[in-house]
Specification:
- The chain contains ten helices and 17 strands.
- It is of the alpha/beta class.
- Helix 3 runs parallel beside helix 4.
- The longest helix is centred in the last third of the chain and has 14 residues.
- The radius of gyration is 20 Å and the shape is globular.
- The mean pLDDT is 96.
């Protein structure tokens, strides 16, 4: 039996829960969970904001742990290896997208916390192809958020071949944005943080921003007109997107990694006149996650986290709901 923490209905507190995972599949590994990040996506799923949560619901998709069992066909993992597991726990591995190395775009990919039970548990199972070995140099205590938030902001750098000479801005210096600043600085970019928080201004500079602009100031937005090659939006709020588009250089890109739920109000001439682009992306493929981890190890990039014990899960969720997390929350054994 696997011991976990589950919600029995939308928005309910998590409580002790046990389930029988059955026989380990030939292509799966079982991981003894050491720590697991608490992501805003866990909260959205807990509350059924996206309309497909099944209960009992076990959250947790930023898992760090040790492999304790492997299926008969598994060769990529070994018992005793420390690994990580992120948003996806399985792929079809046969479609053209998977064959091209873009498993994260597979239409049949299985989320770790949808249709299966997640990592707020003593153990979790996943297809071996979705499990990534943790390299030396990555702190296992704080590494969990790299497997969702970290890869979400790293993936666009790879997908769009961002040059180290690029001028890049980040909207929203929070759970995603604070990692984006670190990656972009190490990538070699000239980095600007958009924030309205004086406290975050100083922290943004410490974490890799070269410049900080007050995003509520029309004057400061206007001062950046035509400057940025890429803007990463990490927020889920409705903003003046046309104002941000005006800060893009010709052929610049406004890229969404935050799940803005309201429709975008965009003036098309802001795109046409300077051949600008709007795009979005999810988490990355297993290969891109592995590359991100090596990059993080080389450049000593680490999420800023607060730690809770697993039995403090409801306290941790309350802190996340109140917007008080600084900047990520990790549950530890």
């Amino acid at each position: 039996m696997i011991k976990a923490y589950a919600a029995m209905s939308a928005g309910a507190p998590l409580e002790a829960f046990e389930y029988d995972p059955g026989v380990l599949a030939n292509n799966e590994v079982e991981i003894a969970v050491e720590s697991c990040g608490l992501c805003h996506s866990d909260l959205s799923m807990l509350d059924n904001d996206w309309g497909f949560t099944a209960y009992p619901f076990v959250p947790g998709h930023e898992v760090i742990g040790t492999v304790v069992a492997i299926g008969a066909d598994v060769t990529s993992s070994a018992i005793g290896q420390r690994v990580g597991l992120g948003w996806h726990s399985a792929y079809c591995n046969t479609c053209s997208t998977c064959q091209a190395g873009d498993q994260n775009l597979c239409s049949s990919a299985q989320p770790t916390i949808a249709g299966r039970h997640g990592g707020f548990a003593d153990k979790v199972r996943a297809q071996a192809t979705a499990v990534i070995n943790l390299p030396d140099g990555v702190n296992p205590d704080s590494a969990g958020p790299l497997f969702c938030g970290g890869i979400t902001v790293f993936n666009p750098l790879v997908q769009f071949d961002i040059k180290p000479t690029a001028k890049v801005a980040v909207i929203g210096i929070g759970g995603l944005g604070h990692m984006a600043l670190q990656f972009l600085n190490a990538w070699g970019c000239e980095v600007t943080a958009f924030t309205t928080s004086e406290r975050k201004k100083a922290e943004s500079l410490e974490m890799g921003a070269h410049h900080v602009l007050n995003s509520s100031s029309e004057e400061e937005l206007a001062s950046a007109a035509g400057k940025f090659d890429l803007i990463l939006s990490t927020v889920n709020a409705k903003l003046d997107w046309n104002g941000y588009l005006a800060t893009l250089a010709p052929k610049g890109r406004l890229h969404f990694v935050g799940a803005t739920l309201e429709p975008l109000d965009i003036g098309v001439f802001n795109l046409i006149a300077a051949q600008r682009t709007i795009s979005g992306s999810p988490v990355g493929s297993p290969n891109t996650i592995a590359a991100m981890l090596e990059f993080a190890a080389l450049h000593k990039i680490e999420p800023v986290v607060e730690y809770f014990k697993f039995d403090q899960i409801n306290e941790a969720i309350a802190r996340l709901r109140e917007g008080k997390a600084h900047y990520r929350i990790v549950l530890k054994k």
